[in-house]
Amino acid sequence: MIGRVVRCKIMAKAHVAYPDAKSFSTMIESLAKIVDEIAINVNSERLAIRAIDPAQVALIEVHLPSEAFLEFEVEEEVTGGVNIANALKLIKRSKKGDKLEIDIDEEYVIFKIMGATLKRFKFRNLAVSPPEIPELGLEFNVHAVILSDVLKHALKDAETVGDTAEFDAREDMLIIRGKGASTTETKITGGTSALIELEIKEPSKSAYSIEYLKHILALTKIADAVTVEFSSTMPLKLEFPLPAGGKVMYLLAPKTM
To answer: Using an 8 Å Cβ cutoff, are 149 and 220 in contact?
Structure first.
């Protein structure tokens, strides 16, 4: 008698442990500014979250390679959908030094904060479709790397005078202006510790909404430097590097003046 071969379906699920729960909370905080729900996708190589705001003005992407985690186990690629406001209320209670574990299967998304105590939060896995975003293939005329604190203070200064931040690159400097009833100006020049890199293919100037830029100011807490790329009247790309090759990328459409 020939026995039947029974093929068992592999359950799509993943278990990861991130070493810094507080930093992960900061990433989620930035996402919460533009969307209500997120889809956390995990495959054998990385954890990724992509979100675009309803007006399709801002795109944010979190990319964390497997090397960034203390534990990274994936039986089959899986996506966990959660209400970001509810998740953030819990994750943001983490303390410095706490570890974050995430378990995702087809039914549930579970967060565990591991520190002096163990906190466990279990959510239904919501059917959240990741945004369909075409490859943009953008090429920028300006590439700069500056200290994150410099960007934060320049935008806070700009906010005091209006709702527009103008990025202007020329010669050996990057200028961030606040424009409104009056003007503020932060000049970041070559030869100073504030400007780490600057490459200018051609002088460029473009304006962006400060309200949208404020969404990512929290990321300056977890990255010492930020890469700034733009061209005249084109999107602004900000990239915050994280340990082990991780990054958070923010793309913002230009503002018409």
So the answer is: yes
